Amino acid sequence: MVLDSQMGRAGAGRQYMSSRRKRGPLRLIAALLVVAGVGFVCWRMIAGGDDAGPNQANADNSPTIEQPGGHTTIAPQPRDPALTTPQHAAPLPQPKPQPKPKPKPQPKRVEQPQPKPQPKRIEQPAPTPSRPQLASNNEQVNRQITQALKLVQQNRLAEGRAYLNQVLASDISAQLAEQVRREMSAVNEKLVFSPLIDKHDPFSSQYVIRDNDALSRIAPPHKVPWQFIQKINRIPRPERIRPGQRIKIIEGPFHVVITKSQYRADIYLGEGQTRMYVRSYRVGLGEFNSTPTGAFVVKRGSKLENPEWHNPRNSKYYAANDPTNPIGERWIGLQGIDENTRELRSYGLHGTIEPESIGKQASMGCIRFLPEDIIEVFDMLVGGKSTVVILP
Fold this sequence. Notes:
about 400 residues, alpha+beta, Membrane-bound Lytic Murein Transglycosylase D, Chain A, 9-stranded mixed β-sheet, single chain, 8 helices, 4 domains, two-stranded antiparallel sheet, 17 strands
C-alpha cells in the first residue's frame, strides 16, 4: 500500500526527471556558447594583444551557475582592486616624491675688478739730443759760439774746437765755461782719443811704420808716452805693429791745471796762447787745505805702476799690488819748479781705494783721482815734460 505522502514524492521525482530531460539540450547549447565565447576572447587577446580589458579577462575565467529553467549565468566575481577602480573610489596613494638632492654649494666666485682701459699711448719720436745752449752777454763770444757749433755739426771738428777754445780763454761766466768744456770734451773723444785724423788739427799727424820700428822709439820725439799711442790706435799689443801700417800720433806734451776750489783737474795740449783744452777730471785734495799751490813738473822716473808705499805718519808698509794700498795702482811723482814749490818733496798724483773721498779734502796733501781716471792721466803725462799747476 502506498501512502499519500509517498505518492507525492513519487510524482515529484517523475517531474524532476522530466525536467532534467528537458534541460539536457540547453546545457549543450550553453557549453557551446561558453566555448565559442572563450574562443572569441582568446582570438581577441591574440589579435588585439593589450587591447583586451581587464573586465573581459575576468569574464572568461568566471564560473557558471545553472539557473532554473535550464539557463546558465556567470557567477559574479569580485573585481581586482588592482585592475579596476570604482567610479567614486578614493585615488590610490601615490608614492611620495623623493626630495631632490641639494646641489653642493659652489664656491662663490670672486669677481676680479677689471683694469680700467688705459688710454692708448701715442709713441712720440725720440727727441734729437740737443747741444747745450751756449750764450754770453758778449756779442763777439756769441758769434764765436755760433760759428763753432755750426762747424762741429758739419763735422769740421778741429775748426769748431778752435773757436770753442777761444771762448774758453775769454772772460766768461763759470757756468758758460763748464758748458764749453763739456762740448770740447765730446769733440776731443774723436780728435784726441780715437784713430781719427783731422787734417786741420795741429796736434795730430799720421805716421807710417818702418822696418824695425817700435812704439817705444816712435813716441819720445812727440813727447807722449808710447802707451798713449797704442791706446788711441787700438793696437792690442805693441809688438804687433807692421811695416807700412799707418798710425795716429798726438803732438805733446800734455799738461795739468788743478783748480782747488772746484776740485777739478783740466788736461791741456800745447803751451801758452796755443794750448788746447782736452778733458777734465774730478779730484780729491789734502785734508785741512794741505795741498800746496804752485807749479810742478812730472819728476823723471817717478811714474810707478802698482807702487809700494810707506805711510809717513805711522810707518806702515804696503807692498806692490796690495789691494789695501791707499794710493791705489798708479803714482806720478811731482817736483816743484817755482819758488813756492821748489823745496817741497813727496807730493804727487795717485789713485785711491776710497772713491767717496773725491771732491773732498781727505789726503795727506797729494791729489787723488778715481782709479780709472788716474790710469788715463798716467798714460798721457811724460816725465820732465808735462807740468802740473795747482791753483787756489
